[in-house]
Amino acid sequence: MLELKNISKSYKQFALQNININVNAGDYYVLLGNSGSGKSLLLELICGLIPADTGKIYLDKKEIGKLPIQKRELGIVFQDFALFPHKTVRDNILFALERVKISKKMKMAVLSDMCDIMDINHLLHRYPGTLSGGEAQRVALARTLVKKPKVLLLDEPLSSLDVQLRGDLRALLKKINTKGQTIVHVTHDYEEAVALAKRVAVIDKGKIIQEGNLQEVFQNPKSKFVADFVGIRNFFKANLCRNAGQTYAMINNEQKIHLLNNNIEGEGFVMIRDEDILLYEQKPESSAMNNFYGAIINAVPARLGMEVLVKTGFADFWVLITRATFYRMNLEIGKNIWISFKASAVKFLKI
Fold it and tell me: What is the pLDDT of residue 191?
């Protein structure tokens, strides 16, 4: 579908170095990196705003790296939306169809269909300066999608929105992708990656550090940078359930993890920070609802202490403890141990 081969670009005091990416049709591909990592520069290079120094870009096996932006069959939505302030919402969207050789009647039909999908019919006569951030984002998406791009490129699309609007827009982007739209999305927020991505690439200092599906990258970071950046090792696919007044996530269809959550039931991911898990030599007598028996299978020094990997009957958990605690409890590989964490420590992201 979309393929980048050995792409390099020197820009001011920065350089993208030998970028290789494959995005399949229907993918939701997230480029995850800190500010200044090169992710937005890469997006601009893909869409044709700037040329690569070396390497090639293919779309459906056709090289597009030397084509002008309007001929690449790609659509990009910028972080600042880039709407025309002097045009109404209706005219902003129709502007994208000015050079499309279809009848006016067909253009109106395309406009109507897209406004229904984006739920923006009530905004058509408004001007961008009167829109909220969420409304402007939907209009910018509509203007890009009416041209039916083969790949939709998104530059930090949720960064300027509040928590509620982020949830709404995540659901909309997921819906668009489910309908078959291939999406490449750059962000610095790992929660966006968890909620949206089918595949994720971590980029740092102009290089792709690690790439794969969510479980591969989040559960098995291949470098200290990825582990520190992702910041979460206990990451499990789960189903959110409610029964008899209790809310719990079912892991591997066999084990309940209790949590506090108002989401509706459905699929998602459970995340528990390693520092929120406690270790006990005996079954703990505490208010924590999640207590599991296991054995230590690994222990490695960390910046803030020791990271201990505990294998339970249904999943492996990373636990961060101080070195003093590690030696005081005489912890070693093979030792049986209890892990414990509160329901309030469990985060659930619905997909």
Answer: 80
319: Cβ–Cβ under 8 A, 6 or more apart, which residues? 274, 277, 278, 279, 307, 308, 309, 310, 339
Contacts of 7 (CB under 8 A, 6+ apart): 16, 18, 19, 20, 42, 45, 52, 54, 55, 56, 57
Structural domains of the chain in order of their starting residue, each with its CATH number: 2-230 (3.40.50.300), 234-350 (2.40.50.100)
CA–chain centroid gap for 216, Å, is 14
Q: Position of tokens 């951030």?
A: 133
Look at residue 89 in the predicted model and tell me its pLDDT: 96
Q: Amino acid identity, residue 163?
A: V
Q: Please state whether beta strands 28-32 and 74-77 pair in parallel, antiparallel, or not at all (unpaired).
A: unpaired
Q: What is the pLDDT of residues 255-297, one digit of tens each?
A: 999 998 776 788 888 889 899 999 999 999 888 889 999 999 9
First CA to last CA distance, the chain: 24
**Signed CA dihedral, 186, 191, 195, 200: sign only:** positive
**Global pTM value:** 0.78
Neighbours of 72 (CB within 10 A): 20
